[in-house]
Records
---
Amino acid sequence: MKKVICLAGMLLCVLIAAQAVVVTYTPDNTTIFKNPERGYTEELSYKVSASHPNVVKNNLDANWGGSNQMTLVMVLYNFNKFKAQDIPSEVLAGFEEDMQILRNCGVKCVLRFAYTESQSDKVDATPEWVERHLEQLKPHLAANADVIYVIEAGFIGSWGEWYYTTNYGNESQHINANRRLVIQYLFENVPEDRFILFRYPMIKTEYLNDKNPLTAEEAFQNTQKARMGCHNDAFLNNWGNDGTYASNTNDDDPKVRQYVATETLYVPNGGETNVESNSLAEQVYSKAPAEMSEYHWSFCGKSYATQVTSRWKSSGIYDTLNVHMGYRYNLIDGRFSDQAAPSGKMNVTIRVRNDGYAPIYNERPVYLVLKGTGSNSSLHTIPLKADPRRWLPNGVISWINEQVDIPNNVLEGTYHMYLWMPDKYESIKNDPRYAVRCANVNMWNATTGYNDLGATVIISKSAPKDPGTLPEGIEEVTGDGLQVTGPKKIIENGIFYILMPDGRKYYCF
């Protein structure tokens, strides 16, 4: 047993910590692999009709994604043929068929609806017809939310990008009465657990009359503010990315950029580049990693515009973006109780570093899996309190640090441990293609969707029910220059101690 001596002023106490198994993991910093809800997208769009109701069908198969390891497709339904009439039942049935094809392929979509697809055709549907169409779509969106990553606001303007439009004000407007109505209809009909992405950040600030970015406390609360994200379909193009970062007084406003950089820690951001000039493409292609990192991109169209994406490929930047776009969870090390009793508890401490540009955004459960060894084939999944949406990007280290309850029906024996992060929807929860893979060597099991923690625990009725507690949120540092909010481990002259926020020191021998 390890003894930890606590010195707090003149008080001397002895704490007893349970023995633990400590495992260090090897990072995989370069492999491009599939992970749900992140990465490059391919766009599929079509002017649907009763006779041609599908967008996805005949365009995807079970091997879709190929060498690009893609798990997202951008799907755009063009309702040009019924701007002032109901969506035909055949099209709604085609939507259901398309969503099932996504499910069969193990992918999700960035979903958008529009009425026009050119700058010359600015005639979109009126707010009344948008409301009617969203009411028709509502049950179909709810039934297929499992394979919808995000919904882009759409409906207004050419390609649903809220710019070239006759019914919603001139192109430079962000909010007016009709646009406000469409946002209201979106919130009334899009499932509450799906984000709605808007082409311009000022649409959100003007609609809410709130220029303050989301805080950690406000995030993921299913409020309108917490559900409004971003998409930039002019990435790297011209001043302010063609109006993305424009304010009412500045075509490229640093305050708008900072707003987006802060917001996107908690709401998704993605899109495509639309640079069509070869000279501009040559100027801006190398800026992509820094821009995606700062504004936390989780997805990007891989084909449009090819002037930039082709330059990404020839330079190697394409693969760099493919590795880091979205989240990339690298387990650093783990500390686990070496024994536990049925109906007792065990300690689980895992350090996680997110090497991606963004966190994961949609709610996702995390489980500790105990799998029996030898002749013991029993399997137990124990829910953890960890929330991977809070594992911030660009190298930030987060912690799973919990005392978990062992079920009372666990048979005695040795169990191997795994980390499992499946989709929250029962329809695809047990499909390993929708589980999160950690960026570590020899950890992933593609058959189960489990990440091997490389540790075992002995379940025994004679084991202590209470394994003792561990300090929460410890950050290992050397020297004394790092400021952290929780306890930290200080190493001085080969001796380490835990420094608590209130100044107490736990010397460890």
---
Amino acid sequence: MMDVIEYPQEKDWLSLCERPQLELESLESAVKTIIAEVKASGDTALVNFAKRFDKATVTSLEITKQEIEEAILSVDENLKNAIAVAASNIKKFHAAQQRSILEVETMPGVTCWRKGVAIEKVGIYIPGGSAPLFSTLLMLAIPAVQAGCKEIVVCTPPSTHGKINPAILYAASLVGLTKIYKVGGAQAIAAMSIGTESIPKVNKIYGPGNQYVTKAKQLVNLQGTAIDMPAGPSEVLVIADELADAGFVAADLLAQAEHGSDSQVLLVTLSKHLIPKVQHELVVQLEKLPRKEIASKAIENSRILLFESEGTLIDFVNEYAPEHLIINTKNCDAISDKIINAGSVFLGPYTPESAGDYASGTNHTLPTNGHAKAYSGVSLDSFMKFITYQKITQEGLEKLGPSVEIMASAEELIGHKESVTIRLKK
């Protein structure tokens, strides 16, 4: 059962917004050690980590063409069709984000513009283990290809048999990826950041993961490798009213809880009568889940909050800044207009979060742990950098130059002033 907190005071919101996490000091120390070993020993360290963490014996880190071909043959046709639907929708949504180059004449003879250029080398991390997320590969690889990234490297942990889930390899082949490596965890992030004998060094790393992966991304970011965002254990917050179907609400909470024992799910509501109905549905539905044990532990880290007013409820949601926000209320559109901090929002009773996880088209790689206050989810822009340009005619410099001279002189940067003056004299 989820803990129920009635009418929480604002002074308690900070603690209610805390996510479950490992001891930060020990976590950082462990990840630093992993990064150092990869830097010192390269592929050898990666093979040793596979045996230690994944219980897998890996003879070759790179996936072969034969392995990809065998995976394609082994994937069920129904799954292939479902992946094709998801891929099509993801392509459509991200293709619509492409921008045209807009030139602006800021004054006569002074033209400025901004041009998007693909990041040349990118690394994609795909969580594996008990839940191999081939959907994440679609979410990251498709916009990377659309952006025009020249080199796309994929790392994902092997099974105990030293294999990669066939659906991951099928999804990779569908998108056209070939550089796929059997490496998971913080060591995968280190390998893509540093480069090893087998794995190329990349400019930016994408993909969610557990707290070790998140910490590794943060640490390599400090060392010069860009990352998409801090994206750790998954989370969902559901806003539901008295008209919400308790079964729907419980299903949405459990769908997120089964991601991992360190996931967090919250229900916030104005309806006291809804709470026992949801609690009952949680018990009933939990028994049917194969990942019952994992979901149960996540539920222990989760809670139900009862609020007195809609305004207070919305204020709390914005303070929590959830990765996924489901608004299952009769006035969902009006509430959504007041949401300023969330990774992705799902509106109405027939919009489960799992639709966005797989196939509606939006990206499911989103900021967690409150980072939605400052970060966006992955988009086409995430795989691009934007360069500004300007071109000034003689007439333009004659009009603009005096302002630059005056400002440069005021800042006592005479060299700046002279670079204009010499041209005006000419």
---
Amino acid sequence: MNCLEQLGKRILYWDGGMGSLLQERGLKGGELPEIWNVTHREDVIAIHQAYLEAGADIINANTFGANRIKYPQGKEHTLRSVIEAAFENAREAKKRSGREDACVALDVGPTGKLLEPLGDLAFEDAVAIFAEIMQIGKECGADLVLIETMSDAYEAKAAVVAAKEQTDLPVFVTMVYNESKKLLTGTSPEAVVSTMEGLGVTALGVNCGMGPAQMREVAKELLENASVPVIVNPNAGLPRRENGKNVYDVTPEAFAEIMSEIAKDGAWIVGGCCGTTPEHIRLTKQACDRVNPLPIQPKKKTVISTHGMAVTLCGEPVAVGTQIDPAVSEDVKEALLDEDFDSILDEATEMEDDGADVIRVCVAMPEADEETLLPETILELQTYMKTPLQICTENPKALDQALRIYNGKAMIHAVNGMQERMDQIFPLAKKYGAVVVAELADENGVVKNEEERTVIAKKICQAAKQSGIAMENLVYDMQPEEDESVFAVLETLCR
């Protein structure tokens, strides 16, 4: 039985540090580890085999740094050659260890470049880089994709989008948090969860950066917000230099003891990162096998987010900022036509300062190309603002582009009872994980009759479910005092 079939039934065990063990075997500073898949094949196989014999259910193919930036065309060792060799080695290790039940992950690390606006790598260029890796990994027989050691949720989104578009494999994501429980780019665990779960990842978590004791608090926050299995893969402490080598101070015994506590907290997938050895994994498995894992509970939280902020909607009215909309303001219209985004930002900042929970953005006007202007406006606003955005457009292509480059979990305004509109909106909301505002309206406009409003509400709810939209990602635009019977129906439908 493939180990992934056991996910959610028992604790699964990941392997540990590949790079640190290669360094022990002679990998030099600045040398690309993936080349060892070809030049030092037996060393790589031996490390995989040791982890498998220690009890790891999942091993990472030695592909962490394999991308076209580090392995451009024309070099002796091509991107395809090192990835193909990585999977050959992993399969050989499974054979030698008798662990055919184990899974091999396509290990995907950061590109090494910062995405715009922090750096010079465009989002779509990042997607293209990751897409190439995903295509090769799928062809090589990867069982799953691990997107790991990400310090920017935007780059992680690019990798997830690529994985989803190029493969049908389960996608796991682990990020690197600092001591303040934030990513390098300032994103909180709650915001990361909202974005990654929205994109449909199978499991998410934390790796690298910290030892298990320091990582436990981040893991707890992930567990409080996640409705999917949580992964915890710490370092064996922080490295220090000793006699020219990296030394890690957390022993296998101490590591396993803390990992068992993390498993008791609710983690379902545990393993190691830098400095961890097969002995760390062996003792962790012994300790955690004694833990009765907590059930994975759907949190059913309605969350919208940006890179810097998550807003949880709990049945209270949402404060929507006065719209960024050329139909509402001539000044906004003029600024959009002139691409004067500083003025647009000033408008949005004023709304943010006034306490808006979300800012509605619409750029539709006959004089402009909405499919270009909407994503440009979203990019400019999210560069400087923390407040989540509500994207308002009748153009499905513009909506697709805006959701694709949105850094976080967006809100869509709006769907209604028209079948054509639902067919346009719900697939995009599912793909990019957005919250959708539903209006009780149809071809005749906003419906006033309570019975008719109930019929439309049912229709929208059922269509959302058929599209795979979680009910917490559907928000109805209505007043409780005016729609008491509608609320009663929806409470039953949305359970």
---
Amino acid sequence: MKRVISILACLWLAASLHGEERQNLNIVFIGNSITQGVILDDPRHEAPPVKAAAYLRLQPGVGTVRYSNQGVSGSTTFDFLPDKGKLFPNVTQVADQFKDETWATLLFSVMLGTNDSACSGTNGAPVSPDTYRANMKTIIDRLLALYPACKIVLHRPVWYSPNTYNGARYMQEGLDRLQSYYPVLQELVKDYSTRYPGQVFMGDTEGFAYFEKHHQEELFPEKGNAGTFYLHPNAKGAAALGELWGKALLKVIDN
């Protein structure tokens, strides 16, 4: 046992001498059913946040990784508004537990927009790009006010098939609206880079095209009112999305 401890101490000393400081992370994932991991057989082990955390733990510059999956099926930016939405208190309840842990970086990983883009059937739908911008800004501003040392990462919402129509109606109109949110996210990141440098970042941007290309293999085929549609990642797709998020988060902490 003493020999093992001695070896570990030597490894730690060697890393210190070479300036290799491992970053500890506390991550709160904010999102909808895709983040939550609906339809998956075992979302506690298969959802994208689980896979993102697993990816990060394997990286040489990363130490401990703790996370909370605050993805809620059907949610829009309206549902996460600090003063009017019902879900923001759940986010702060978790983040408050991380707040005083100054030895770890607090990250908010956000992917919202899928349900905002619906034509009908979700809270606030259809959400215009201007309203989407205002809602996202309200959420980001409150997070920065409550957690001044945090970093916020905004992922581009991923592709869904243009015939998507379940409890809510999306269709091609919704997909077009979803794509209009991406420039909004880019503008927000640019704006915050001057007002809050080093705190608000663009996250994954590759998932949209990835799932458009691989939807038959990595999204569940679901029966809808306009035929079989593709929206939610299966186990393979959730792992791929989690890795994309993990890579984006890694860039942020390395920034």
